Structure formats: structure tokens, C-alpha cells
Amino acid sequence: MELGSKTKSEEIVRSHEFATIEYHDEKTDLQLCEQSAHYLSDTDAESCAIGVEETEKLLKANAERGDKQALFLLGQLYYEEGRYVEAETVFNGIKDEDPRALYQLAVMCYDGLGTTADHVKAVEYMRRVAWWHSSDVGSIRYTALYNIGRAYMEGYGVQASDSEAERHFLLAADGGNPHACVKAQTCLGMFYSRPDTLDLKKAFYWHTEACGNGSLESQGVLGIMYLYGIGVQKDPRAALQCLREAAERGNVYAQGHLVAYYYHWKFYSKAATLAERISKYEDIGAIARRTDCLPEYISKGIATALFYHGRCLQLGRGVEQNDVSAKECFIKAAQLNPEVCKDLQMDVIYGRI
């Protein structure tokens, strides 16, 4: 049983919009924090508990003795504390010998943190990180390549170019390497779902690779592709598995489509219960940060759940009929995402919901 028309489902996958370019990657943040914690535990096991001030003193002392790792971590400490001018001074001093410092300078340069925003220079710095002269650059090279691809997608600091964006995303994805940039792998899945660069088989391939490497967003998209047979043979069982697992991991877009799945297979109590829980979500920004999913698609997931919850209340399916509460759900859904509501209202008109 289909959850609406195939044209509609294809549009869901194709209409992905790339978020504003960000050179500051959460995965990199985590790596840097782990490095800092590891260094401090080796140097002084109690330093993590004695505050930023004591940590700063410790790092300064070790940096003055020639410890280059301590010097970088000092700059990172300043960065995390919002002391951007001091961070820039430290990073500038070591940018030619430490690619992590150059990467952080690119972040600061793009966002205008402690310096005047300069997208051209930010991309230039990212290029230097991507093509660093020695192998000690590590996985940050992949993140830099990904960000250059994003720059070409959006036209920030460079002339917009789909072909250059694709080239850099492919380099960053490194054939599906789990140690490369998984975000780039998901991004390729979205890239090949755009009308201008449409190749649904490639989209399915890259979402599969990204999902296998832990991408929550790609796992949700795969569920929808399996559900409607987009870029792959239709497989309701695989669709349900992907949607369930993604939903359990916090993918709100998958949760919304799981509500729709339950509803159309007449599991009305399950649909109503899950929809009611999703309808209480409020802080989309916090959800996006926690799950690393796009805010736009989180809003679509919540709006979908609200609409189906309203329909359950309106028709008394899985819950006691309540026209007043149903109307409230429809209004909230329309306010949150008019596009989703328009499509679902058409499904109501044509008897699909």
C-alpha cells in the first residue's frame, strides 16, 4: 500500500536544500575535545576538575617548554571559551605547521569570529588543509574537502559550480570510507536527488554508504526510498526497518513517515500514539544539533505527525474522536510547514488519508 503518490515521494527526496556552509564541524569538535581530555589526563589527572583557569595555566606552561600539542590545545581552549582574538593569535602562530590550527582559522575567518569575515580567505585556508603537504593532516582533510564542496554548492568564497561541488564531495567521501567524511556521503545522496543533478541510483548508493557509516539522516531517507521504490526496488519490509531504526535514533523526519506508515496499514493506535508524542516536540534547533539532521526536515516530520494526529482525532481512529483537538493539530501543522500540509490535504481530498 502506498502512502500517497510516487511523484510526491520523489519530491520529498529531491527537494533537499543544502544548509548554509559551516566550516566548524561537530565531529571535528569532538575529536579536538577528546584530544584535549587525553592530553590533560596524561599530564595531570585532576586538571579537568580544577577549572578553565588552571587548565589554561597548565597548557601555557607546557607550551612554553616547546610542547606543540599544548600550544594548539591552548588555542582551542580560547576558541571554546569564546576568546576568539586570543585563539586567532595562537592559531596564526602555528598555522603553517599544524593543519588543525589552519582549519580553525578557516572557521573563524568564515564566521567572522575575532576577525573580519572573509569567505574567500576561508576557502583558501580550507584548500591548504585539504592539500596539506604531509600525511599528519589526518581525517580533517576530508572535512576540509567537504566544506569546499559546500562552498561551491552555495557560492560562498568561490563561483558556484555543481561540478566542482560534486568533485570535492567525492574526494571527501573517499568511496564510502568510514574514516572519511560521512557528511559528504550523505551530501552526495542529496546531491544526486536534486532535479539538476538527478541520478537516483547514485543517490541510493551514497545514502546506503552513509547509513552504513552511521548517518542518521541517510537512514531515514533510505526508508523513504525503499517505501516508494525510488532508486531501488520497492521493499516495504526494508522501509519499515530503516524508518523504525532511524526513528529510534531520533530522526524526526523518519518518525513522521513512520506515523504515516502505521496509519495507512491501519495500525491506528500506534499511529496516534507516536504522532501525539512527536507533536510535543518544540525546540527544532536543539533536535538538529543533537541528531545532526536538517531543521527543515525536522519541521516536516513534526508537521506530518501533527497532520496525521489531527486526522486520527477527526475520524476517531486509534483515539477518541475530538474535532476541536483535530483542528488544533491541523492549524499547528500548517503553521509549522505549509508545504507538507498542502500535500497531505490533497491526499485527504483524493481519499488517500
UniProtKB/TrEMBL annotation:
- Work out whether the entry's keyword set contains Repeat: yes
Q: Where in the cell is it found?
A: Cytoplasm
Q: Does the keyword RNA-binding apply?
A: no
Report the main location listed first in the record. Answer: cytoplasm
Sorted keywords for this record are:
Cytoplasm, Repeat, TPR repeat
Q: Which residues form a coiled coil?
A: none
Name the GO cellular-component terms. Answer: cytoplasm
Which residue intervals correspond to the TPR repeats?
68-101
Q: Which Pfam families match?
A: Sel1 (PF08238)
Functional note: May act as an adapter that regulates LRP2 function.
PANTHER family named among the record's database cross-references: LRP2-BINDING PROTEIN (PTHR44554)
- This protein is called what? LRP2-binding protein
Species the sequence originates in: Chanos chanos
Query: What gene, per UniProt, encodes this protein?
Result: lrp2bp
